[in-house]
Amino acid sequence: MTTAAENRLRAGEAASEARGANERFRDRRDAHRDSVFFALCECGRRGCRSGIELTVHEYDAIRRNADWQIVVAGHEYPSHRLVRATERYLLVTVEGAPAVANAVGARSFA
Fold it and tell me: What digits encode the pLDDT tens for the residues 28-50?
């Protein structure tokens, strides 16, 4: 039987994998701020492949805060704290553990 801590760790790993994929998707887009791509939901559910349409500008603005995760509405967990809700996605932080932020970090804008 798994513990709550093990479940949180696995969810953090899954969210980190989604964020890493999103960074690669973003890097393949041109720098034009209105360029659109589909980002993966960073909810932390293993196997979640729900997509969220974002502009490069939106994604870069979100990534200025390394603790924020992009989540499809309905995919939030009790440990998620809502930062902002839009028509297309939720921005959340994970209570008690910035697992994704530690693994991937904020986007550099040098």
Answer: 877 777 788 999 999 998 889 99
Query: Any idea where the domains of the chain sit in the sequence?
Result: 4-103
- The closest of 77, 81, 28 to 48, measured between CA atoms, is 77
pTM of the model: 0.77
The Cα angle at residue 6 between residues 84 and 67, in degrees rounded to 5: 25
Burial class (CB in 10 A: 0-12, 13-18, 19+), 31: exposed
- With beta carbons less than 8 A apart as the criterion, state whether 72 and 97 touch: no
The residue count for the chain: 110
From CA 44, how far away is CA 40, in angstroms rounded? Answer: 10
Using the Cα atoms of residue 107, residue 23, residue 61 and residue 99 in order, give the sign of their dihedral: negative
